[in-house]
Amino acid sequence: MLDFVNRWLRCVMVAAICTTFAGNGVEAQETRQWELLDTIGDPQARHEAAFIECDDRFFLLGGRGVKPVDIYDPKTRTWTQGARSPVEIHHFQPVVYNHQILVVGAMTGNYPKENALDKVLIYDPKLDQWKWGAEIPEDRRRGGAGAAVHGDDLYLVSGIQNGHWDGWVTWLDRLDLKTQTWESLADAPRARDHFQCAFIEDKLYVAGGRRSSGVTKQVFDLTIPEVDVYDLQTGTWNTLDEQSNLPIPRAGCFSFAIGRDFFVAGGESTIQREAHAEVQRLDTVTNQWSTDSKFAVGRHGTGVIVWNDALYTCAGSGGRGGGPELDSTEMLELNSEANEGSE
């Protein structure tokens, strides 16, 4: 793992030389570009879905409508199909625990007043089977929330109670995955939905998202620039200084962490009709952002996987809102020196 992180940091240092921050008015000379993969088969086109790795295979789950699981083998670049989910599931960040994929904080039903799932839904990749897990307390149910696992605990943060209409919440809840019991923790500094989160050591980083407000006809408008951080050791929240705000506020984006770096990729906003292609990196030591790379095709409503010195994404929507739905797969090699320097 240490060798992997060292190779990644070397790559990041080169990218930082070629990339400038959004606020200084200078065009980047070169930005690393993701590669569209030629795969055997394709996943089913979908958005508001989830993409996650479990035991060296990748799983594309959910999306609008009742969908099968699409399964990708990165060693053979082959897509196959698994079982359909028992209900429609969308707008969630999946997690892996004990070799199973957990869906929590998801929506079901039709736009704009979708319902929140009342239970955790579990997919077993080995058996290609779905089952229901712990019940979510009735007064804490929501969709479009961020989810992350730390040890034997699942953390569920923020979200929206009433689909895309209203009911934004600041809640932080912890599910003990051994005892299947819930605990309410300190509220986040602000409400948000349509985002993802990630742990870096004992700190949970929350960035991106919006307050989807169909009730005021502002479904896409109310994006959140601030970065909020929850410290497990102190049980308290902190908001990074304004200069550490997300450079391009957007929602429907995907987050992940490598070493000390936190990433926000893709997304949708009102500043452009196309989905965003930027993958932006926050150095959590300096709290400075840079543009790390760009997708070949901008997308929102899916995820990014870190596996074997590479990043992967697939599916999602290529534009703001519901389309066009994508079935393409992309990869970025983390230890590639092909993009180092410029002429």
TrEMBL record:
Gene3D superfamilies: Kelch-type beta propeller
Keywords linked to the UniProt accession: Isomerase
MF annotations from Gene Ontology: isomerase activity
Entry's EC annotation: 5.1.3.24
SMART domains: Kelch
Enzyme class: isomerase
InterPro entries, A to Z: Kelch-typ_b-propeller, Kelch_1
Pfam families per UniProt: Kelch_KLHDC2_KLHL20_DRC7 (PF24681)
Protein name: N-acetylneuraminate epimerase
Gene: nanM_1
